[in-house]
Write a structure and sequence with these properties.
single chain; alpha/beta; 8 helices; 8-stranded mixed beta sheet; FAD/NAD(P)-binding domain; about 325 residues; binds flavin-adenine dinucleotide; about 25% helix; 6-stranded mixed beta sheet
């Protein structure tokens, strides 16, 4: 049986493995957990979905919700949503899909259902080729041989890894936004009339209350996303400066005397895809001339979880068809 290495265990990699027929697949993941940008940070007694916030109920990807329900990975949440807080847009009920016990439940349960061996905490730094076979290098370890290698990392990272094998001159440039996120626990209710919404201030693009997702703490917890252009300008801001700034902005916005009892920030270098392969009417994955090395991920399709899932699904279909022909 042909041996396949999949680099990354984000939603696109999990989708690829799920949509391929049973094959000899091994995952390599630089983190200690699966999920990539779908991440639930647990600090003290708090839990924050500080990567992807939710999956849209009407995302339109056939079969995805049914599969996630079948493996007991998700719940549907109804919350009060405001599309533009600073302009006093009406607050409406909105249903979204989230992980059953934090969004990390989604990749964890998919990964578990696949039963493929996985090397966690292995950052692949190089790929070597000998006699039409590929070897993966992580620190001083070498893994292989593999017949096929699939890289599901953000575009620029996979480009670095595959540059020696693929001519990128004809491939359109992909653009990503970076985003600062801030996780805060307040000791009192802020009195916000919504649970999630856009544009609290000119700097804060989105915020989501975590209590109605996780339902197990006394304090009021929020995840706040800064705007992409603000993040660009303040890319190197000190964490504590950013955290204090956001706490003050929130207290001012809600005229609250609550104090922050926990705060932490994280900068996502590759957050949302700004310009995808789909936007540029290009083929939805990148492959080497020998059709053994592939790069894919949300950046092939768009900025969201459903795009990551679609990317893995489309590449799996292409790969299965190609193998049938050969
Ligand atoms: C702050 C933020 C908020 C978001 N909000 C939403 C939202 O509300 N709704 C929504 O639908 N989407 C949202 N998204 C987008 C969504 O999270 C992504 O589109 C999706 O998770 C991307 O999946 P992926 O598999 O393509 O990439 P990733 O999740 O980035 O997966 C890549 C994987 O490769 C691993 N990796 C990278 N380099 C190496 C290496 N050298 N060796 C081994 N492993 C490696 C990484 O650790 C990671 O696990 C958000 C993203 C961010 C950052």
């Amino acid at each position: 049986m042909k041996k396949i290495a999949v680099i990354g265990t984000g939603l696109s990699a999990l989708s690829l493995a799920y949509h391929l027929p049973a094959l000899d697949i091994t995952f390599f993941e630089k983190s200690w957990r699966p999920g990539g940008r779908i991440s639930t940070r647990k600090h003290e007694q708090y839990a924050f979905d500080h990567g992807a916030h939710y999956l849209k109920l009407d995302h339109g990807v056939i079969g995805l919700n049914e599969f996630l329900k079948k493996i007991d990975a998700i719940k549907i949440l109804k919350g009060q949503f405001c599309s533009n807080i600073s302009q006093n847009s009406p607050i409406e009920d909105k249903e979204v899909i989230v992980g059953k016990d934090g969004n990390e439940t989604i990749p964890i349960k998919i990964h578990k259902s696949l039963h493929y061996p996985t090397h966690f905490s292995k950052q692949i730094t190089n790929i070597e080729s000998h006699n039409n076979e590929y070897f993966l290098i992580a620190a001083d370890e070498k893994f292989g041989p593999y017949d096929y290698v699939f890289c599901s990392m953000p575009y620029e990272q996979s480009k670095k890894l595959l540059d020696q094998f693929i001519d990128y001159s004809d491939i359109p440039e992909i653009e990503f936004d970076s985003i600062w996120t801030v996780m805060i626990a307040f000791n009192k209710r802020l009195g916000a009339p919504f649970q999630f919404g856009y544009h609290l201030t000119p700097e804060i693009s989105f915020l989501m209350n975590q209590n109605f997702k996780h339902e197990f703490f006394n304090e009021e917890c929020w995840v706040v996303n800064m705007r992409a252009d603000w993040t660009k300008e303040y890319y190197n801001i000190e964490n504590y400066v950013l955290e204090d700034y956001v706490v003050n902005q929130m207290k001012k916005s809600f005229q609250s005397k609550a104090d922050a009892v926990f705060k932490k920030s994280h900068r996502w270098r590759y957050s949302y895809t700004k310009k995808s392969l789909r936007d540029q009417n290009s083929k939805r994955f990148i492959e080497s001339i020998d059709q053994r090395l592939y790069a894919f991920g949300d950046w092939c399709e768009g900025p969201s979880m459903q795009d990551a899932w679609l990317s893995g699904k489309k590449l799996a279909q292409h790969f299965s068809e190609m193998r049938l022909k050969n």
